[in-house]
Design brief:
With 149 residues, the protein is an alpha/beta fold. It has one domain: Leucine Aminopeptidase, subunit E, domain 1 (3-Layer(aba) Sandwich). 32% of the residues lie in helices and 27% in strands. The protein has a six-stranded mixed β-sheet with strand order 1-6-5-2-4-3, sandwiched between helices. α4 links the parallel β5 and β6. It starts with a strand and ends with a strand. It comes from Lebetimonas natsushimae. This is Macro domain-containing protein.
Length: 149
């Protein structure tokens, strides 16, 4: 099931929250900044992931424990490419599709809260991204709430 809701990720609770992140898993601005403020230990969880698995490729995801109350896990989606020498830093729609595929392959049950991927700093068209996300997430057995502002 996919539900589109106007609001802010801070207004919801779920099993997972999607963080449109970057390939080096650095908590910056946007959703990352909100999550960092809500739960300062989150960067430690991301650092543990990096130590074990390394950095992400564009379109990949990493799932970390969310050591605070609002969510159980954070799905960090590599929207922006911050790897040294990256040719295409900004996202494209194919990257959003890859992220959606990776999410539905990794999350089989539960409630996933997600903002529109790549539409903030990434600058992608909100309508097109919403259609991509709805198309992919409807294929999943998990429940998705896509949060729009």
């Amino acid at each position: 099931m996919v539900e589109i809701i106007k609001g802010d990720i801070r207004d919801f609770e779920g099993d997972y929250v999607v963080n449109p992140s970057n390939t080096i898993l650095q908590l910056g601005s946007g959703v990352s900044g909100v999550l960092r403020q809500m739960c300062p230990p989150l960067q430690d969880e991301m650092n543990k992931y990096i130590e074990k698995h390394g950095f992400l490729d564009p379109g990949d995801i990493a799932i970390t424990v969310y050591p605070c109350m609002e969510y159980k896990y954070v799905i960090h989606a590599a929207v922006m490419d911050y790897r040294k020498g990256a040719v295409q830093i900004m996202p494209d729609y194919e990257r959003i599709e890859k992220i959606c595929k990776n999410i539905i392959n990794s999350v089989k049950a539960g409630l996933v809260i997600s903002p529109l991927l790549g539409t903030g700093v990434g600058g992608l068209d909100k309508g097109k991204v919403l259609e991509i996300m709805k198309t992919y997430f409807q294929k999943s057995s998990a429940n998705f709430k896509i949060i729009i502002r």
